[in-house]
Structures are given as C-alpha cells and as structure tokens.
Amino acid sequence: MQLAMQKLARWHIWLAWLVGFPILMWLATGLFMAARPIEEVRGEHIRINPAPATLPRGELARMVISGDDLPVEMRTRMQGNSAVTSVTYPDGKVERYFAHSGEAVPPVDMATARTLVAMQVAGGDKVQDITLFEADDTPSDFRRKMPVWQVVLTDGTRFYVGQETGEIEAIRTRWWRAFDFMWGLHIMDLQTREDTNHPVLILFAVLSVIGALLGCILMFRRRKTRLVKSDG
User: Fold this and answer.
1) CB 3.0–4.6 Å: which of 39, 78, 107, 117 could bond 44 by disulfide?
2) pLDDT for the residue 58
3) Ranges in the chain, pLDDT < 70
4) Do 129 and 152 form a contact (C-beta atoms < 8 A)?
C-alpha cells in the first residue's frame, strides 16, 4: 500500500506540473469574467430604452412575398416615426417595408446609422469613425455574416448597425473585447473563440480531474501518517 501511495504521489506531482498553468489560467480568466455584470460587458447599460410605441391606427398594407423562399418571420413595429414591417428569410436576409404603403425601406446609409446610434445610446453622438462592412468582410469582433455599419465612439466603443435591418445588432465595449480575449483563453481557442469541445481542452480537463482525484486520495494518506506519528 505504501509503495502504491508513493507512485500516486509521483504521478500527482508530474500531473501538477503539466496542468498547473491551465488550471491557473482557468481560475484567473473565470475570475475576470465574473468581475463585471454581463449586461455591462455587452453594453446594455448604455442603451436608451424608449417608451413602447403603439402602431398607428389604420389598415396595414398586405405584404406580397414572391419567390421560392418563404419568410420565417414577419413583424411590424415602430422605427423612428414610421411603422415598418421586417421580413426575415431562411438564409438570414432581411427586407423592410413601410407598413402602410408597402414600399421598400431603403438600406441604412451612413447618416442614418449615425442617427440611430445617437438616438438609442447614451453618448452616441460622440462619433469618431463610421465604416461600412460587407457580409463577407465583417470585423472579427462581430462574427456574423451580414452587412453592417461600424460606428466607433471617441471612447472606443463600437456599434454595429445592420444595413438591412436598421437595428443595432451588437455593442462592443472595451470590457467586451477584454472579456472576449479571456473567454478565448478560458476555452483554449483564441482563433474562433467558439469551440468548447476541442481535443486539447478536453485532454487538459481530464488530466486536471485525475490530478484532483489523486490529490484527494493522497490527502487521506497524509492524515493517516500524522495519526500514526501522534500515537507513537
């Protein structure tokens, strides 16, 4: 039994050297991500929530959708001073129509993107730069295939306004970018920061569990040794 415990102790030491850094990294990144409320990381605290707007009375125009692909969602709501119907297709494409006339709403231009951010975000009028990104060339911190306007404020906060949707699709604060980097370290995937079941992560997790179990076993061995010494 003593020989077996000695072998377990050696394995425990070698495993500690192997998984010590990943465990420290998981704890440190987990602490960082838990330090701030997720709503603040996502920038929800700087959104201006307007009072709910009711649709004006009157019959809405019937949307005539042609083509092979039928929409998966249609909803009508107020955007600015107009009632707008958004039509979403299976491939993610969004078309907008003025609800009363049925006419297509033009894509969001630079001036409209600036106005949307200024109206819907606290301090959104302090714009430093505006850039249009096509669906196949979006920045790494957006990670969605859709054309967007990137509106950058003077404090570094980035807003992504959908050119087709007319909505603020994402807010990227400085805390979000730091959080995103820590998340990549936490799951050991700094490239896509989305793969939570890749072999490297699973391997180190399994080794860490084995090391913890060995430590628990050795804890009882050390306690028994102390008891024997005290009896002597």
Assistant:
1) 39
2) 65
3) 1-2, 51-69, 221-232
4) yes
Are 11 and 100 in the same domain? no
Q: Tell me the per-residue pLDDT of 15-73, one tens digit each, with 9 for 90 and over.
A: 888 888 999 999 999 999 999 899 999 998 899 877 666 666 666 666 666 666 677 78
**Domain ranges, residue 94:** 43-172
Do residues 225 and 36 touch, judged by C-beta distance below 8 A?
A: no
Could you identify the residue written with the tokens 């793969």? 195
Residue 18: partners with Cβ closer than 8 Å, 6 or more residues away: 207
What whole-number distance in Å separates Cα of residue 100 and Cα of residue 73?
Answer: 18
Q: In whole angstroms, give the CA distance from residue 34 to residue 80.
A: 36
Last residue of a domain, one of 172, 195, 220: 172
Instruction: Check whether residue 108 and residue 141 sit in a common domain.
Output: yes
Backbone angles phi, psi at 231, to 5 degrees: -70, -35
Token pair of 136 as six digits: 């196949």
This prediction's pTM? 0.76
Domain boundary among 172, 201, 216: 172
Q: Are 76 and 85 in contact (CB under 8 A)?
A: yes
| Secondary structure (3-state) at 51 | coil
DSSP string computed for 42-82:
TTGGGB--PPPPPPPSSPPPPP---SSPPPSEEEEEEETTE
